[in-house]
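User: Before I run my own analysis I want an independent prediction to cross-check against. Here's the chain; please return only the structure tokens and, at the end, one sentence I can use as a sanity check.
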Amino acid sequence: MPQKEKNSLKEDLKKKIEEFSALYEVGKFITSTLHLDEVLSLITKKAATIMKASACSLRLLDKSGCELLLRSSYGFTNKKFQKIKKSLRVGESIAGRVVKNGKPYVINDLSVEKKYKYPQFPIKIGLRSMVTVPLIQKDKIIGALSIYNVKVGEYTPEDVKLLSMFASQAAIAIENARLFEQAQTGYLNTIKTLSNIIDAKDSQTFGHSERVMEHCMDIAGILKLPDSQKEILKYAGLLHDIGKIGIDVGILRKPSNLTKDEWKIMNMHPVVGSGIVEQIGFLDDLAPIILHHHERYDGKGYPSGLKKEKIPLGARILSVVDAYEAMVSDRPYRKALSFKKIRQELLEGAGAQFDPDIVKVFLKILDKKKT
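Assistant: Structure tokens:
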């Protein structure tokens, strides 16, 4: 074999190795999260990277199977282009045709392509050629992935094969994320049902757990907690009183002060609650927050007498919100307090019962909602 051919073969082999290595690494990357929006964002970004493309867009079929919705894009800086045609019918434009026919489509020059719906917009931002491939999941087309380049006639049949291979991995990642999302929805519905059962034991506080959860999410947003922590806190807010499920209704609804023995029973609900969620695999991360949400910042709370930062952050947030919700609601032994009085109680409790930083954040949120 002539040296020139050997060198050419070596170059081709080197290129293939690089492409497959990149494909493998990208595949690992896009399956590193199970949150659908994050997965879609990673797909468009990594598709552009592996294909050395200037931009990328991803469309998925809606539930009806008739419309293609733009779910993620990368590299489109022109706002006017980003707003154009968020939805396409199956068979419409290039993405719609690819989904209908199940075959990749290459455009070497957008300025002369008649089947592309709005060629003027990518051209305005300097994009000239494109490749669109179907996203196929278990022999079923679920959408289309498109890459764009600033050069005319940039993409080869080999590029189409590489993008199609990437799209296969992307479809698997999308399916996994969707299954995870469905499971999470099922879990959340179960949790909401449990929280409603707890709240229903006391008609005067029905909806208490939902409101506590919403306030906790407001605080978590201001504190910029990671999504994983937000999710745990969200569920803990809904289930923080699950330990009351075994407490006699007569104690929960008692119109006068509780006796010493009755308080002992009430004070056990965080321990009972944390024990319940520990037995449910996907809820066990909630246990420390539920267990410690009646601790005090000064160490005089229960059940463990933890102090300051030794109390989990989620429990410190929940403590403030739970106290607020108790004060803002009518109880058998008193009417709801005024906002002025509640504010005073929270400020007086800051540094003693409550984490002062959490109180400060929560009062800012409440003040903003009042205006």
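Sanity check: The beta strands are 55-61, 67-74, 87-89, 105-107, 129-137, 140-149.
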